[in-house]
Amino acid sequence: MANTTTPSLQASSRTTVASTLDARRIAVGLALAVTAAIHVLDLPGKVEEVPYLAVAYVLLIVAAFVIMERIFRGGVLVDYLAAIGLGLAILLAFVVNRTIGMPGATDDIGNWLEPLGLLSLVVEGFVVWQAAAAVALLRRAN
Fold first, then answer.
1. In this structure, are residues 20 and 137 in contact, taking their beta carbons and an 8 Å threshold?
2. CA distance 46 to 92
3. Chain segment 40-91, per-residue pLDDT in tens
4. What 8-state DSSP symbol labels residue 100?
5. Measured between alpha carbons, how far is 71 from 57 in angstroms, rounded to an integer?
6. Rounded-to-integer distance, Cα 135 and Cα 21, Å
7. What's the CA gap between 96 and 101, in Å, rounded?
8. Smallest Cα–Cα separation from 22: which of 134, 125, 141?
9. Can you give the pLDDT at residue 6?
10. pTM of the prediction?
11. Helix, strand, or coil here: 105?
12. Is 57 within 8 Å of 42 (Cβ atoms)?
């Protein structure tokens, strides 16, 4: 069956996908910056309380900035998948920390309403959502 889509309609569709992907790129990049900022704010307490978590925070912050930079410079599929992975890892760590605790860090068990933690949940959920939407757009475009 012949393709009945006109060239101008195809170009319009590509333009729409590109502009939607640009919006997702900005959303994911800025949300990763907020992720890093949240963990920078919480870092001093972790250094004193549980040093291994402070190291994990530093690695998370660096990873967020690296992924953010890659996404802002063009963002290919693997960058958005990395953003999803980072977001899901942080969400999982939050749930573990609030349910069974982490070695040497059980003070936050049951502390679901801590403001910085709630903000982190919202931002990480947003990262996963927007990055997943970008992955779907990229797959559809190819």
1. yes
2. 18
3. 999 998 898 899 999 999 999 999 999 999 999 988 999 999 999 999 999 9
4. T
5. 21
6. 9
7. 6
8. 134
9. 56
10. 0.86
11. strand
12. yes
